[in-house]
Structures are given as C-alpha cells and as structure tokens.
Write a structure and sequence with these properties.
The complex is a heterodimer of chains A (about 180) and B (about 475).
Chain A (H helix, E strand, L loop, with lengths): L4 E8 L2 H13 L5 E4 L7 H5 L6 H27 L12 H27 L23 E6 L7 H10 L3 E7 L2
Antiparallel strand pairs in A: 1-3, 1-4, 2-3
Helix pairs in contact in A: 3-4
Chain B lengths: L28 H13 L4 H28 L14 H25 L5 H26 L25 H34 L3 H11 L6 H34 L11 H27 L8 H31 L3 H12 L4 H13 L7 H4 L2 H27 L15 H24 L5 H6 L19
Helix pairs in contact in B: 2-14, 3-4, 3-7, 3-8, 3-13, 4-5, 4-14, 5-6, 5-7, 7-8, 8-9, 8-13, 9-10, 9-11, 10-11, 11-13
The chains are: A alpha+beta (about 180), B mainly alpha (about 475).
Chain lengths: ~180, ~475
Amino acid sequence: MSQRPYGLVAEFDSPAAVLRAAEEVRQAGYRRWDVFSPFPVHGLDKVMGFQNSRVGWFSFVFGAGAFIGTMLMIWYCNDFDYPILIGGKPMFSPPMSVVPSYILLVLGAAVGAFIGMVALNRLPRHHHPLFDRKRFALVSRDKFFLAIGANDPKFSEAETRRLLESLGGAHVELVEDE
Amino acid sequence: MAESATQLESLAPPTELRRMAPVPADRSLGWLTDKLTAFNEGRTPLWWWVLFLPAAFCAAVVLPGALVYKISTGVGVWGNNMPVMWGWDIINFVWWVGVAHAGTLISAMLFLTRQHWRTAIGRAAEAMTVFSVMMAGLYPAIHVGREWFDWYMIPIPTSNGLWPQFRSPLMWDVFAVNTYLIVSTLFWYMGLIPDLALMRDRAKTRVRKFLYGLFALGWTGSARQWHNYEKAYLVLSGLATLLVFTVSSIVGMDFATAQLAGWHETIFPFYFVAGAVFCGFGMVLVLLIPLRKWCHLEDIITLAHIDKICKLTLMMGCVMGYIYAVEFFIAWYSGNPYDAWVFGHRMFGHQYWYGGWMMIVVNASLPQLFWIKKVRQNLKLIFVIAVLINIGMWFERFTIIVGSLYQDFLPANWGVYYPTWVDVASYVGTLGAFFMLYLLFVRFLPMVPVSEVKAITPCADPHHALGGAKGWRA
C-alpha cells in the first residue's frame, strides 16, 4: 500500500474562526476539503455549498414502498390468497387497510432516514486517517478542524500549508492515509 | 437626515417574557463536555448500586419466574376470569405504552416546535420511551395465553395458509407497538452517535474504546456528516411525532371497537393519547428529579426545566379533567341505561368506586396545584405529585378495564376481579427491568445529549462573541 498522504489538517478554536477559514479555503478554489466539529456549525452548509441532503429521498422511497407494500400485502392476504368473509365487510377496502399501512409507512420512512444517513455518510467505517492524530480526539470536545484533501487538484503541500497557517489554523499537519 | 435616522433602542423584554438560557451562558464547550460525561467516567456511586441491585433482582429473577410459571401453567394463574377477561396484563400494557409517549413528545415534538430547552432532557426522556415500550410489548405477547402461537400475528406464509386479520385493531396494535419500539430506538440511537464518538475519543481503557468506537460507527463529525445527520434527525423526529398520536390511538381503538359500555366511545383514541402523555410526564419527573441531583446535573437540567414539565403536566391534567367530564356527560346524554349504569358505578358502586375517585382526585385535580409557582419549584412536592399521577393513571386504566367488564349486560354474568401474586410479580418484574435498563443507560451513556447542548450555547454560535465572532465581517 502506498503511503500517499490524506491531506493537511489545521485546528481552530472557535466556530467563527473555522467558518471564516472555510470561506477563505473555498475562495482559494479548493474542492476536496471538509470541516470537523463537535456540533453542526451554523452557516457552514452555505459556505460549503451543500445542496439539500438526500436523506429525505431515502425516507420517502422507503416510506412509500412500505405503504404500498403493506396495502398489497393486506389485499393479497385477506382478499386474494385466503378470503374470509367477516361481518359482511368487504374483503379488501382502503380505509381499513390504511391504519396498518400508515404505521408501516412510518416504520419504513424512519428506517429509510436512518439508512440514508448512514449510507450517505459512508458509515459504518472502521477507521479514518484523521483518527491517527492524537489531537483529533478533541474534535468531539471543543476544537474545530479543517482538512484539505491531498486529492484536491489545487493541493500542494507548501502552498496549502501556508494558506491554512495564514487563516490562523494551529498544528497544521500532514496526515498519512492508511 | 441624521436626526431622522435615530438609533433604534433595543428594548429588553420584561423578565416574565425573557427566554431562559438553555444552559448558563458562561459555560465553555470543554466545561460542558467534562461535566456531562463525568458521571459516565467516574466511579460508580453507592446510590446506583442500591437502586440497581433490587431492580436487577426483579428483572432477572422475579420477572422470568412469573413468566415461566405463567407460560408453563397457563393463563389461569392470573386473576382474569369471566367476565373480567382483561386484567393487570392489559392495564400494565396500556400504562407502559402511556409512559413511553411523553418521552417521544419531549424528544420529537418539542424538537419540531424548536423548544430549545428540551435539548437537555430529550435523551433521558427518549430512553424512558425505549425501555417502557419494551415493557409494554411484553404484555400482549404473554396475554394471548398460548405464547407459542405468537408468530400467528406476523404475516408470514405458512403451510396452514392462514393470514392475520387486518381488520382488527388488535392486529394494528402488533404493528403499532413494534413500529414504535423500532422507530424510537432508531431515533434514540441516532441521537447518541455523536456522543458515542465523544465517549470513544475520551475513553481511557481498551474495552471502552472498542465498545464506544463500535457503536459510534466511525463518526468523525465532518460537516458533510452533520449535514445528513441533521436532516435525518429532523425527518425522524417528524415521524416519531406521528407515533405519539398513532400508537395510543390504536390502543384506544382496541377498546372502542368493543360493544361494551364504558369502552364504546368515540373519544377513546384521543383519551388514550392524552392519558398516555399525562402519565409519561409524571414518569419523566419521577426519573429526572432524583437523577439531576445524584448525577450533579442541576446546572443543566435546571429548575426552569422542571417548571416547564410541570406546566405541561398541568395542561394535560386539565385535558384529562375535560375528557372525564365528557365521558360522564355522554353517559347521561346518550340515554343508554348500560352506559349510565357503568358510569354511576364507577363513582358510587360497591366495588371499585375508589378507582373512579382516583381519576377525579389525582389525575384531574391534583395537577391543578401546578398553577402555583411555589409548588412548581418545590422538588419534593413535585416528586410526590408525579408518583401519585403515575399511580392515578394506573388506576384509571384499572377503572376503564375492570370497572367496565365486571358488570356486563347480564347480571347473572357479573363477577369480581382480584389479581393474583403472579399478576403482581409480572408487574414488579417489569418495573424492575425498566429501572435496571434505565440505570444502565444513565451509567454508561451520556444522559444529556452533549453535542446538542453544546450546539445551543453562545459558544457554538459563530455570530456571537463567545463563538469567536470578534472581527467577523458581516
């Protein structure tokens, strides 16, 4: 396995500092970079140019699938495969099937949202190159990190390091990939 | 021109309209992190063992004992008999489902309505939901009598070719309770992921590092992850909110579809949702009042939080009073002699009259004390009221179930219901199991959502001076 670097990472003390740095990094034309923080930093979505998360689509597809699937299942069970007449009620009618279908819609949509979140975030992952850095453990505490990937077309170790240091990043370090 | 462009004076709102700070403003992120994980990382205190051991005994000995005896002998070991076919099993089922609902209301509904104060208590409430739905789900599974046929409730192809009967609310219950368990567990777990990563990053021992790391799924806290996470959290809380209204409605329909006086009421779905939330607020108070003190979280779960839960409890208590009034009114207004009989005997019968009075005195009247601010700040009194609310709501279900069943349409059929020791042991067992799970949760997982609490402090706001906004150009 080649020891190509993962990228350069810099540490910041406050959400405002990292937000400012993020804006500068974007304006410098970098494409493959990310910010790591103990909580979602307000305004970062805009600076990083995120589109609306696709989690909602996962949820919608799973939920709609569960609803339609349950409707079909009830029709199949109670009307097609083994019809039993109970109290003269119709073998299948949407109103009576809506309640279980609706409940499984909630279930499907919730599972979909969770799977969407996990899948879009590429989780679960066993390891991350940044975990090798001792200081990165502070990311869940009170430090903010900005990493610029070595696979960025504009990445050059000296140039990028200078940029990060000029933005006030502390402990700017090259991180090896695993 | 200069005169017309007068400086806008920012008027400070009067004290009673000022929003409470969700966490005291001068706390740094590091301080919060240390504070909120201290209990998980410190030594196990004595009180934890004193509570845990009896609870674990109930969960590991009493509950399995009662269940094994009941399953191996038959449903006759319970007090259920004609005409009271539903006894403590269903009372406890409804009670546990009810306890769950307030947790979801706090963690999901108050999230959707942007009530930031809910952040500090959201996870504790959600954990209560998860564990009490587990306890609730146990009862329908064992009350069917022949537990080895439980799988009939699942729509799977069999050689018999039989399918579940989807027209029955009892069947809807199966889906509703299981969905509730899965969705609230997912919601709770997803909220935990960033904090599990925090525990992983702070862990000193290999075992802790491994276990927290395993369940943190490799969370790094990158902006991309947060972006998807926040969206998923929003979607999940919206879905969980739907369940607050659905699950107990369906439990209410279990009753309302029966032709029995005292059950056959259109208000039942709403009645059960309101009762569930009311009872659950009682349980939240019972859990949080001691835990905030023993886990040294008075700065985080403040008196203002308790005050707000008390107000919500008061509101739900008023709703309960309204529903009781409507029930009695309809019993009279409908002109149905059976309804009038049941509701007359609910208050003045020779049996079970105390249940009816418990409903009026404890559930509808006692919370009215929360109108008084002094009461809302007296933790001991609140604790007593909250315990009484839980007991009162248990008696409400007792009154609805046993009180409506024991005198049905044929006087020759009437009977009296007494629980047996197996009924009591099952209930005590589930109480023990619930508290055991809750104590384990408090001990090993951050009871307060650390990342969420941090996110609502001024330190987390990039446009606030504490968030480093000095020199920030707008």
